């Protein structure tokens, strides 16, 4: 497994770990504009998960393009 694919896996796995570790965010304080921590933490992860998925997708596209270029470059030699 290449380092890029490890980063892709971490980007996709991190939201699951963050949401399944309920003890880390099962509290009321600190509140944000009157919203308890439990709720705004989860909503922040919706946005953060989207960003991580976008990063993973871009890295995957770049990795696939590099592999295709390596295959084509190796075939022509």
Topology:
Layout: H1 3-20, H2 37-76
Given the helix and strand composition, which structural class is it?
mainly alpha
What is the rounded distance between the termini? 25 Å
Q: State which percent range the strand residues make up.
A: under 5%
Low-confidence stretches: none
Envelope shape: elongated
Order of helices and strands: HH
Count of alpha and pi helical runs: 2
Radius of gyration: 19 Å
The largest sheet, given as strand count, sense and whether it forms a barrel, is: none
Keywords: Membrane, Transmembrane, Transmembrane helix
InterPro entries: DUF3311
Protein name: DUF3311 domain-containing protein
Transmembrane segments: 42-60
Search tags:
mainly alpha; 77 residues; DUF3311; elongated; DUF3311 domain-containing protein; transmembrane helix; 2 helices
Structural account:
This protein has 77 residues and is mainly alpha-helical. It has one domain (3-59). The chain is 75% helix and 0% strand. The chain contains 2 helices and no strands. It has helices spanning 3-20, 37-76. It is elongated, with a radius of gyration of 19 Å. The mean pLDDT is 93. This is DUF3311 domain-containing protein. It holds the Pfam family DUF3311. The chain crosses the membrane at residues 42-60. InterPro entries: DUF3311. Keywords: Membrane, Transmembrane, Transmembrane helix.
């Amino acid at each position: 497994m290449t380092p890029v694919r490890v980063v892709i896996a971490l980007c996709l796995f991190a939201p699951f770990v963050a949401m399944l570790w309920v003890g880390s965010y099962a509290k009321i304080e600190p509140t944000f504009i009157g919203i308890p921590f439990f709720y705004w933490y989860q909503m922040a992860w919706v946005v953060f998960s989207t960003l991580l998925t976008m990063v993973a997708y871009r890295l995957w596209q770049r990795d696939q393009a590099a592999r295709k270029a390596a295959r084509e470059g190796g075939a022509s030699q």
